[in-house]
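Components:
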Amino acid sequence: MDRNRLLPLVHLWASFLTFLPAIGLGVWQMLMRSPLPTPIDDPNVYYASVTAHGSIMAYVFPTLFAMGFGYAIANSSRGGVLSGRMLAWIGFYVLIAGTVMALVPVALGCSSVLYTFYPTLVGSPWYYLGVVLVILGSFFWIAVMVINMRAWKRDNPGQMVPLALFGITACALLWGWTALGAASEILFQILPVAFGWRHTIDAGLARTLFSLTLHAIVYFWLFPAYIAYYTLMPQAAGGRLYSDTMGRIAFILFLVFSLPVGLHHLFMDPEHGSGFKFVQAMLTFMVVLPTLLTIFTITASLEIAGRLRGGKGLFGWIRALPWDEPMVLAVALSLLLLGPGGFGGLINMSFAMNAMIHNTSWVTAHFHLIFGGAVVIMYFAIAYELWPRLTRRPLISKPIACRQLWLWFWGILIVTVPWHIAGLMGQPRRYAIFDYSDPSEARMAPLVIISAAGGFILFFSVLLFFFVLVRSNLAPRSEVMPPVRYSLAINPPPTVLPLLNGLGFWNLILFALLLISYGYPIGQFFFLRGQDSPGYSLTRELSR
Amino acid sequence: MIPEDPEPGIGSAWKLLVICVLSGVLVVGFGVGFILLPAFQPGQHASSVHEAIQHALGHHTHDQFPEVMPLPESIPTYVVWDEATIHQALSGDAVRGEFIAINCTACHGEKGMTEQKWIPNLAGINRIVLYKQLADFRSETRLSGPMSAIAQAISPQQAADVAAYFSMLPGILRSEGMRVPESGRSYRTRDDVKRLIFAGDAKRDLAGCATCHGPGAYRLGAPSLSGQNRDYIEQQLHNFAQGVRRNDMNMPMRTVAGVLTADEMHRLAVAFSSSTYQSQ
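Structure:
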């Protein structure tokens, strides 16, 4: 096999192979929280399971996916050439080593700190080192993406970088900035305590550093989905992209605005005053802009495709779209999930409404709807789109692929809608067990049972997904498989716009925004001293 | 090929426009967040811009905040878990501690295991736990005539030494760092003592014992209980419930013991002393 195709294929397989057990753990967690009989009903196992599920779903699965997607885009954009392949493989092995290093102590039950670490909780140092290695491995990918975008510009002077390559490079850089928060929290705050060199942690500083990661990481997960909206869907629908420029502006706005906004995850925290919370809440509303731009552009692109296919009238173009194409179907379902998910997000980022849903199941339901729903359904569709190109084998069972996407869509709704409602009823998050004999909790029981049933639907959908991929992998090779083709814009940019053709200026802007919005909130901890609390060890008493 | 933008470089009008728009957004954000909101929000009477900014940064003190804090009725403990205290509690020398521990054998047994069930076993107990209890006996925030006299006779460093010695003896079961899964540790179990230990009782706002005493997690200063003497555990639960013992920082034990019935205290003490629970 062509070595440049092997690289993304291995990443995508690894990504989905970590996804499968993580989904299984998620289903068991739903059962554990429900009144239904559950095997191994031990809260310690629940927290270990949440840690494994979250670490895989937040750090390993989307990162490997974005890496694989990135290599596929770079390779196809450069006509089958990929610079820095050696670096890419090193990054892959480092990431896999980090994943194993992180998950073994979790499985042994000595690192049940949940994937967001929650200091002053302290687990095994190997877990944290594993996460750092995962981040380090992904940094090789960032370097490879930047190298390839530069190489493309060098090879094609006077032309705009293809939108897909531009987007995935912005995604990689966003991840680089994003990961700095969690990495510095681990390296400077948690690891010294986990190793026993120190015994106290400034939980406020640790939480502030993590908030830098906590919001932007969601946009890192979303980015591949957005890239597919703009560059793969219009082509798959048989139409054209409404505007290439809109795509570039959306990607840049994501890069610039998803980082200096993380304090809205700390609205209820006492270590920050209201001033910076307000400024960052306002900047959070700016992130709505690229989402609205995207919904407009993608709907317009779908309409173009529908009308090109003969659709007439106000809504006739919708029926004319090729709904048997997994990519088209997935985009529509993804946008349907993104709608309520986005409105939920507006509630979370508004100070007063946030106070009502703070630390309730609403929040967990929200990020499952956005990531599990709107994003992961696009990961499936991207895989269906790329698989034939990477394996040189046609996608078998397209109708099953479409049914799988529908199952996922309904599964996510069945899981998350009752979960949201339970949150509004006051169900706390991060609880392993609920006493359903208590009348205040008994009224939530039917909702939790429905949610758990949705979990089984999702698991079945993933099995179908694997069935389609494996079946396609066993199909005979086809030498006439066309390469990946990205959507052409109906109105391409008339001239090379340097601001929309490079990311250097935007990184400077982002750095300035970070300094302004996070400089004081982080800096204050260096002169407001005396807030350290002792580490809270999970599995052993402090004895060193 | 399409033509290059005629004005590349940092000074281009587009870049200037971007910087101006962002600066405008920030000026509005900081203006509203740091000046307008603190000045006009009810209950925050910021009379100057400087004061408004102090409010917004969280540096203000509330108007009703008194100049001098009233002393609490009783101080549960003088031990503060800061870096220096934890370091001292962990820095004991077990060899020196063995010599000091000769004073303890009459009541706590030859090797920290005693036959007298109302006196605690000390063998294997965590050194931080013992250090804190000795500090509380010294300051008489935990009341016991003999123990206060002994604790006042030794220095904090000697307390750390003796704690190091007892912590190394075999006795009370310690966690080995891994947790073995076990069914029946939730509200689903019919064993109500096991339920109390691992799940607690939500109706009474009771957290499970395992949350602080392991194997859920180990709160600093909370001892392992497997292998501790039955009558001692039961007596301490009663003492906490009645407020006779008050040296638990932030009142976790007084709160929990206050809602346990006498029968539950007895059965918990039996369960922990027989090491049925809390193995890992």
